[in-house]
Amino acid sequence: MKPFNYMRATNLHEAIGLLAHHTPNVCLLAGGTDLLIEWRRPSACTPENVIDISALTEMKGIESGNGRIVLKPLTTHAQILKSQAIIESAPLLSVAATVIGSPQIRNRGTVGGNIMNAAACADTVPPLIALNAEVVLQSESERRTLPLHELFLKPYETVARPDEILCEIRFEKLPVKARSSFIKLGRRNALSISRLSVAAVVARDEAGVITNARIVPGATFPRWRRVVEAEKLLVGEKASAELFRAAGDTVSELMIAETGHRWSTEYKEPVIAVLVQRALEQCCR
Question: How far is CA 125 from the centre of its chain?
């Protein structure tokens, strides 16, 4: 690992000040489960300055009230999967947290780090986008809010400026009648990086007609997004295997249209279609 200047912030104000002073060649360290591994690679581009924010207590915790949940970025995956508020009002996020890494990684890794690392395989990102989450970025000069899906430019790159810190992730609780699911496909059952994943939310009325649908695949498109083209097929219809199969095929077709044919396309094309179908079926059981 290449040498760097290490600084440990004791509060959010100090962290923002250090960021402003050392921009642009600076990096924030939260849980470190991604960064420390990356920096050990011989070809890694290690920053000159590293600010450790893991001790910032005001950046930890889950708040629930007024129909909304606020996640602080240093909240660990273990805390998310154990949170009763998440289990009751955003269960797909709880499911995603259970399949991240190992118990050690879940106890150390943070939701903010998972988001800001912007890896295509990030497990918490599809559920949060399906929850219509928004993020709050703060610097010395301003505080701005934007939808989570607008944060990402491409894998490992976000619109956040070097002097900005993620200080909140927030979303509305799912309606009582909405059901959700998260499916992850990896090479093994534990310590697995997602090859493909799908987060889905479906709401139906008393007659069983779908009134709202959200589909967000992971490790599928160049940027994370809701697949509104497939969602439109569902709204106004009753749940059926044929309907869900059509939605899955739409996602698969759009994936190829956006990414082109690659070495993995032969595998991903049918698999993502089936994962979407299964995720929707889980929502409507």
Answer: 1
Please, which residues bridge with residue 183 across strands? Answer: 198
Summarize pLDDT for 202-254 with one digit per residue, the tens.
999 999 999 999 999 999 998 899 999 999 999 999 999 999 999 999 999 99
What distance in Å separates the CA atoms of residue 28 and residue 40, rounded to the nearest whole number? 16
Give the integer Cα–Cα distance in Å for 121 and 209: 32
3-state SS class at 117? helix
**Per this entry, what is the length of the chain?**
285
Lookup: tokens for 100: 């991240």
DSSP for residue 220: S
Whole-prediction pTM value? 0.94
Please name every residue paired with 64 in a beta bridge, in sequence order, or none if there are none.
69
Hey, which bits of the chain come out as E strands?
5-8, 26-29, 49-52, 62-65, 68-71, 134-138, 143-147, 152-154, 157-158, 165-172, 178-185, 196-204, 210-218
Residue ranges of domains in the chain, CATH in brackets: 5-52 (3.30.43), 58-172 (3.30.465.10), 178-283 (3.30.390.50)
Contact of 139 with 163, CB cutoff 8 Å: yes
